[in-house]
Specification:
Distance between the termini: 9 Å
Order of helices and strands: HHHHHHHHHHHHHHHHHEEHHHHH
Largest sheet: 2 strands, antiparallel
Oligomer: single chain
Helix content: 55-70%
Number of strands: 2
Strand content: under 5%
Shape: globular
Mean pLDDT: 88
Structural class: mainly alpha
Length: about 500
C-alpha cells in the first residue's frame, strides 16, 4: 500500500472540490455579497491544503493497484465531504462552531456528495432564508457526486500519472460495467458529456416553465444526480406547477436509467433502450408503481381528481424509486398502504450505470430469477437450469456477488435500524431513516418525513447515518473491504 501515492491522488481530487467553489462564489457576489467571504475562505483553505499536498507528493506516480483504488475512493468521498462542509462551518449556518454543529455541517455535505438529500436544515434555520451562494454550493455537491468525483477526475485529469481503471471501477462497483470507449478516460469523459447535456436541457426547460436560472440549476443538479436538495422548504411542491412537475418526472426517470443507453440514443441508436433487459424491467416497474399509487390515491379520496392522483402519484413513486427524494406532497398524510409501498420502493433503486442508489433493478431481478431457479430444481432435481438475463447465462460468480451484496445490505439495514431504535427513535423513524440514507434517498417517514428534517436525530445517530450514506453511495463493498484483515496483508 503506497500511502504517498494515495495522498497524492487524494490531493489532486480535492483540488476539484476547491476549484468548483468558484461557481457559488459568483452567486454569492450577485446576492449582495452574502456569504461571499465565508465561501472564499473555504475555497482558499481547500486549495491551500490540497495544493500543498499535491506539491509535497508530486513525485508519487504509477499504476494504482486494486487495493489502492479502493482506499482512494473511500477516503476520496470522506475528505470531499470535509472540504465541502467548510462553507457551512465558516458561514456558521448551524450556529456556533462546536462539535455538534461540525457534525451537522459534515452530515449536510456528505448528504450532498452521496446524492442522498437528507438535510439537517429546517429546525434552526429555514432553507429559504439562506444565501444563494450557500444554497448553490449545497446543490452543486449533488451534481458533482452524481456522476462521481472520481469519474470526473479520471475524465479530465490524465496528467495525474496514475491508472484510472481501478478508480473508475472502485467508484462504480455495480454488477454491470459498460465500457463505451477503448480507453477508460474516454469512457468517463463520454458519460460526463451525456450528464452535462441532459443537465443543460433540463435547466432550459425549467426556465421556460417559469423557474429562475438559480432555481433551475439547483433543481437540475438535484434531479440529474437523483439527490433531492431543493431551494425551498416545501421542495418542488413550492412551485405549484404541473409543468415543472412533469419536466422533473421525465428527467428523474432518465437519471434512473443506465447512462450508457443515453449515449447510444444520442448517437442514433434509440432501439438500445428496448433491447436492454434491465431498462424494460425498470420501465415496467415504474409504470406499475405509478398506476398502483395513482389508483389508490383516487379510490381512497386523497385526491378527488384523476389528473391530480396521477400527477402526485407519478412524481412521488418515481422520486422515491430513483432515490431522488424530491417531494410535491406530504406523503405521510397518505393512506398507510401507500406509505408502506413507498418504503418498499426505497429498496429498489434505478438501473446499474445510473446516478440512482439503493439495491438496483438488475440485482433484484437476478435475485428473483435465482430464487425461482431453486424452486424449479426442487420440482425437477435432475434438470439443468441456469439463470439468464438479457438472453445470456449469468455466471455463478456474479450471482454469488449479488447474493453477498444483498445479505450485507439487509444486515446493515437491520443492525443500523436496531441501533437507531436503541437511541430512542420510534420504529418508523428508525427503519425509514436507515433505508433513506443507505439507499441515498433522503426523506423517510416519522420525524424524517418529507416535510421534516434530520436535525432531531441524536448526534451518534447522525454519525451512523453518515456512514450509511457513504456505504450506499459506494455500494458497500468498496467501504467494508477496508475492514477485512486480508485487505491489509501483503
Amino acid at each position: 500500500m503506497r500511502f504517498s501515492l494515495i495522498l497524492a491522488v487524494l490531493a489532486r481530487l480535492n483540488l476539484f472540490v476547491g476549484l468548483t467553489m468558484l461557481a457559488p462564489i459568483i452567486f454569492a457576489w450577485q446576492d449582495n455579497g452574502r456569504d461571499f467571504v465565508p465561501i472564499c475562505i473555504a475555497m482558499g483553505i481547500t486549495l491551500a491544503i490540497s495544493g500543498g499536498s499535491s506539491l509535497i507528493f508530486r513525485t508519487s506516480k504509477g499504476d494504482i493497484s486494486h487495493r489502492e483504488g479502493m482506499m482512494i475512493v473511500a477516503l476520496g468521498w470522506a475528505t470531499a465531504g470535509f472540504f465541502g462542509a467548510l462553507p457551512f462551518f465558516i458561514a456558521k449556518i448551524f450556529g456556533p462552531m462546536n462539535f455538534e454543529n461540525l457534525i451537522n455541517g459534515y452530515f449536510e455535505s456528505i448528504s450532498g456528495f452521496t446524492t442522498t438529500g437528507a438535510s439537517v436544515l429546517g429546525a434552526t434555520v429555514s432553507i429559504e432564508s439562506l444565501g444563494k451562494g450557500i444554497l448553490f454550493w449545497r446543490s452543486l455537491t449533488h451534481w458533482l457526486g452524481g456522476m462521481g468525483i472520481i469519474v470526473l477526475a479520471v475524465a479530465i485529469l490524465p496528467y495525474l500519472g496514475v491508472g484510472g481503471m481501478q478508480l473508475f471501477h472502485a467508484e462504480s462497483p455495480g454488477p454491470t460495467k459498460e465500457k463505451l470507449r477503448p480507453r477508460i478516460r474516454e469512457t468517463a469523459a463520454t458519460l460526463w458529456l451525456v450528464y452535462v447535456m441532459l443537465s443543460a436541457v433540463e435547466t432550459l426547460l425549467l426556465m421556460i416553465a417559469g423557474m429562475s436560472l438559480f432555481d433551475a440549476l439547483c433543481h437540475t443538479f438535484g434531479t440529474m444526480a437523483t439527490g433531492g436538495f431543493s431551494t425551498r422548504n416545501a421542495s418542488v411542491g413550492a412551485f405549484h406547477s404541473g409543468t415543472i412537475d412533469i419536466i422533473i418526472i421525465v428527467f428523474m426517470f432518465l437519471a434512473g436509467a443506465n447512462f450508457s443507453l443515453h449515449y447510444l440514443a444520442l448517437t442514433g441508436k434509440l432501439k438500445a433502450y428496448w433491447k436492454n433487459s434491465e431498462f424494460r424491467y425498470y420501465l415496467g416497474i415504474v409504470i406499475a408503481s405509478v398506476l398502483a399509487l395513482s389508483a389508490i390515491l383516487y379510490l381512497s379520496g386523497t385526491y378527488t381528481s384523476v389528473v391530480d392522483s396521477i400527477r402526485y402519484g407519478a412524481f412521488q413513486s418515481i422520486s422515491i424509486m430513483t432515490t431522488t427524494g424530491f417531494a410535491t406532497a406530504d406523503f405521510e398524510l397518505w393512506p398507510i398502504v401507500l406509505q408502506l409501498m413507498l418504503l418498499t420502493f426505497m429498496f429498489i433503486g434505478g438501473c446499474a450505470g445510473s446516478t440512482g442508489g439503493s439495491i438496483k433493478i438488475v440485482r433484484i431481478v437476478l435475485l428473483f430469477k435465482y430464487a425461482y431457479r431453486e424452486l424449479f430444481r426442487l420440482v425437477h432435481p435432475r434438470a439443468f437450469a441456469s439463470v439468464k438475463f438479457g438472453g445470456k447465462v449469468v455466471h455463478k460468480d456474479i450471482l454469488e456477488s449479488i447474493g453477498g451484496f444483498f445479505i450485507l445490505y439487509m444486515c446493515i439495514f437491520v443492525v443500523s435500524s436496531i441501533i437507531m431504535a436503541g437511541m430512542g427513535m420510534d420504529l418508523i423513524t428508525s427503519l425509514s431513516s436507515v433505508a433513506a440514507t443507505l439507499g441515498n434517498i433522503g426523506p423517510g417517514l416519522g420525524i424524517v418525513g418529507p416535510t421534516e428534517h434530520y436535525f432531531a436525530i441524536p448526534l451518534l445517530g447522525k454519525v451512523l447515518l453518515i456512514f450509511c450514506m457513504i456505504l450506499g453511495r459506494l455500494e458497500i463493498y468498496t467501504v467494508l473491504i477496508l475492514l477485512v484483515p486480508e485487505f491489509w496483508r501483503k
